Amino acid sequence: MEAALEGLAGVEAVRVDLDTDLFTVGYDPGKVAPTEMLEAITELDFEPEIAPAGDSAQAKQRSGPVPPPVSVALATAEGEGKLLFLDFWAEWCAPCKVLEERTISEVGIQEFLGRNVFLRIDTDEHPVAANYYEALGLPTIVVLSPKGEELFRHVGFIEAEELARELDRLDPSTTLENRS
Description:
- The chain contains 7 helices and 6 strands; from the N terminus they run αββααβααβαββα.
- It has helices spanning 2-6, 34-43, 70-80, 94-104, 107-115, 127-132, 160-170; strands spanning 11-17, 22-27, 84-89, 117-122, 140-144, 150-155.
- The strands form 2 sheets. It has a 4-stranded mixed β-sheet with strand order 4-3-5-6. Strands 1-2 form a two-stranded antiparallel ribbon.
- A hairpin with a 5-residue loop joins β5 (140-144) and β6 (150-155).
- The longest helix has 11 residues, at 70-80.
- It is globular.
- The model is unreliable at 52-59 (pLDDT under 50).
């Protein structure tokens, strides 16, 4: 089921909750129409529903303690009043390597990361942290407030210019987009 949906253009994540026998599909409506998504889910013999606007994975309250190594980085971010930028990746993940080479290494992004707390999390070494933050597809970028509230999430590759726009929105004291 997950593989069938993840193969559709625009699908960013599929989250399965085995306790309730429900799944949530995160997708880019610019790449796939909601009607196409509903048809694909119906073809898998499920009854699709469109979740209310505030019911996204981002808005979900996580339970339990924040797992290491994120807990240590979050304590630093909170103590210093900085944002926490999480980069979930794996050694075998080709898009993760491209993200590192073309986006994360860009000067403006590096400046943002230098002003905040940056943590790369190998999902093979830290699967509990990956599950806690629902890093279902790789790479996954999550930006947290100093209190641990999710402010931004992106699954898959993202160009430096687009990421800079999002980071500018979170940290308007600087403008990264026009830097190279």
